[in-house]
Amino acid sequence: MPRSGADARRRLREAALDLYREHGYDATTTAQIAERAGVTERTYFRHFADKREVLFDGEDDLRTVLVDAVAAAPPELPPLAVLTRAFTAAVPLFVAGRSVAERRQEIIVATPALQERAHAKSAALTEALATALAARGLPRPSALLAGRIGMASFGHALGSWDGRSASELERLIAESAAEARSLG
Amino acid sequence: MPRSGADARRRLREAALDLYREHGYDATTTAQIAERAGVTERTYFRHFADKREVLFDGEDDLRTVLVDAVAAAPPELPPLAVLTRAFTAAVPLFVAGRSVAERRQEIIVATPALQERAHAKSAALTEALATALAARGLPRPSALLAGRIGMASFGHALGSWDGRSASELERLIAESAAEARSLG
């Protein structure tokens, strides 16, 4: 019975996390990841564009949830309150992805080439939030400012989270937004 | 008569900006930069650690001015107001460095390897601001949050500046800080 695409993708991600941790990112090849996952290297490249992307699986889902939540927020809500609502909508993704995120973070910290990609991903997410806010009528520079403040505030919440419960992360997101307002 | 170290440094910076623009960053060597500046390659490496650093000359001065201004601000001032004051103190550096900054930006936009270094420089500046705020008694995570919001707000001001007058940049810094507060 052929394994499903989603299953192969999950196994490739797990295999990459294991191999990058065991041998380091630089010493691991996509062929080794595919072998460990029990698929061909061609299958690897059907799922991921390069050796780095396998680590950032899930970013597209996160962006979609955030952007949709920004679009769906009541029109009268101020921009940072819109972002607080969007990050709260993404809490289930962070709860589900916590174990992968922690293992990934260890590998990123040890690998300069991945820090660059992680930064690019974070900048792309900020851009997506700014674009979604601009679509609500906010001038583009103000939307980018709001996106950056929102990302800083959410990073602050995520940094204090113990990774256990969704309700704890929701509380921290609200607290961080309030703290950002209180710093001024 | 031997040329002074400061003069050689200035000429190396100008030569690098010219050559990177003319031939691209990747195709230019430190030997070519030194030759154009009329010094030896050994002199180049006495001033700059690598091919990228020549573009980021002045970052140390900026960090020093910002960190000193944070330390000197009245103790009762809220963190973001402290940062607004610090960026205002650095306005003369931005006025003096505007022409170099514009030419540098064109080169950075065209060169992925430099975007990475530019990001690292910006992250290091955020860290320095956070450390300076933490030294005033702010908890470290809150200091980092304030540093990120302050940098976002200052970037917003710099993005609208026409590069002409110091008083205009001072006005934009104050306006951006007010706008950041109004977003939430």
* Helical segment count of chain A: 9
Order of helical and strand elements of chain A = HHHHHHHHH
| Backbone structural class of chain A | mainly alpha
Largest interface: A-B, 26 and 26 residues
The gyration radius over C-alpha positions of chain A equals 18 Å
Helix content of chain A: over 70%
Which sheet architecture does the biggest sheet of chain A show?
none
CATH class call of the largest domain in chain A? Mainly Alpha
CATH superfamily of the largest domain in chain A: Tetracycline Repressor, domain 2
Tell me the CATH architecture of the largest domain in chain A: Orthogonal Bundle
Distance between the termini of chain A: 60 Å
What keywords describe this structure?
homodimer, 184 residues, mainly alpha, Arc Repressor Mutant, subunit A, Tetracycline Repressor, domain 2, 2 domains, 9 helices, elongated, Homeodomain-like_sf (chains A, B)
